[in-house]
Specification:
This protein has twelve helices and nine strands. By secondary structure, it is an alpha/beta fold. Strands 1-2-4-5-6-7-8-9 form an eight-stranded mixed barrel, surrounded by five helices. Strand 2 (54-65) and strand 3 form a beta hairpin. The longest helix is centred in the first third of the chain and has 22 residues, at 14-35. The structure holds ligand C2E and calcium ion (3 copies). Residues 58, 119, 151, 181 line the site of one calcium ion. It comes from Virgisporangium aurantiacum. This is PAS domain S-box-containing protein/diguanylate cyclase (GGDEF) domain-containing protein. Keywords: Membrane, Transmembrane, Transmembrane helix.
């Protein structure tokens, strides 16, 4: 290769340069969105699979984009993670979700048993601020720590075992519960899972089949794991009556999915809670 100035200049690969510019731009967009309150939490009901009664909700973030409309988390959470903006965004999500639960508990005594599940990303988990953040918002709102469920993915458990186990223990010491999300997609074994202090297993919706025997076998195996560890179990992505009855009859405790309710704004959830016969 030539060793002149032009060649060295090629270190600034135009593709890479574009990537960096794009990332800077995306981070700036998300930062502005956070500043301008463009994020909004939706909430999806979680029900008791036997009675179909509401036991809690999962907070799911959306972006009210001024031009594109309502944008789903799958498009911007990865960018927020890559750019580090997930840390302030995640703080906002935790605060917003816990405050919302406090308001429901306050406004409607029939909802005091309701739990709030909050997704926590790997990057939030690596920083040390999470425990302090949760502590602060619990103190501010007076919400029972037991009503808060932090959802971490199975793949996060596979990162740094000792640090993760320590962090989970600190959160548990606060009294909050921990759920393993998307469970079944990360191949953790019983002996592996045993090392982490968790309370709840959420089986990934790819296991919630109910259409053929294979699907049921896997869902049953995951349930066996949960039971061996004395964890509560949640089946995600229940869309049909067959899926519901299959997971219920297997013995899953809780369920979540479009059959029961789609994620909705707080106002919609208010209406739902006002009507005791729904969802
Ligand atoms: P997740 O945590 O596994 O959330 C469940 C996703 O499944 C949600 O998608 C929900 O709308 C969708 N879902 C619920 N019931 C059904 C169903 O019956 N059928 C089908 N096909 N889908 C169903 P959503 O809201 O688009 O969120 C996608 C992912 O984005 C979440 O997956 C989670 O990993 C991430 N995410 C969402 N909100 C947050 C957040 O506040 N913080 C972080 N860190 N991640 C979030
Ligand atoms: Ca989740
Ligand atoms: Ca999930
Ligand atoms: Ca997921």
């Amino acid at each position: 290769a030539k060793r002149d100035g032009r060649d060295r200049f090629a270190v600034f690969d135009p593709v890479m340069y574009t990537d960096i510019t794009r990332e800077t731009q995306q981070r700036a967009d998300l930062e502005r969105a956070l500043d301008e309150d463009q994020f909004v939490l939706y909430f999806q009901p979680i029900v008791d699979l036997t009675t179909r009664r509401l036991v809690g909700v999962e907070a799911l973030v959306r972006w009210h984009h001024p031009v594109d409309g309502l944008v789903g988390p799958d498009t911007f959470i990865p960018i927020a993670e890559a750019t580090g903006l997930i840390v302030p965004l995640g703080q906002w999500i935790i605060r917003q979700a816990v405050r919302q639960l406090a308001q429901w508990h306050r406004d409607n005594p029939a909802t005091t048993h309701l739990r709030m599940s909050i997704n926590v990303s790997g990057r939030q988990f690596q920083g040390s601020g999470l425990v302090e953040e949760v502590t602060a918002v619990l103190a501010e709102t007076g919400v029972d720590p037991n009503a808060i469920v932090l959802e971490i993915t199975e793949s996060m458990l596979m990162q740094d075992v000792d640090a993760t186990a320590l962090m989970l223990q600190e959160l548990r010491d606060l009294g909050v519960r921990v759920a393993v999300d998307d469970f079944g997609t990360g191949y953790s074994s019983l002996s592996y899972l045993k090392r982490f202090p968790v309370d709840i297993l959420k089986v990934d919706r790819s296991f919630v089949g109910g259409h053929n025997a294979d699907d049921t076998t896997l869902a049953d195996a995951v349930l066996g794991l949960g039971r061996a560890l004395q964890l509560q179990t949640v089946a995600e992505g229940i869309e049909t009556d067959t899926q519901w009855s299959t997971m219920r009859d297997l013995g899953y405790d809780y369920g979540q999915g479009y059959l029961f309710a789609r994620p909705a704004s707080a106002v919609h959830i208010d209406q739902l809670m006002a009507d005791p016969t729904s969802p």
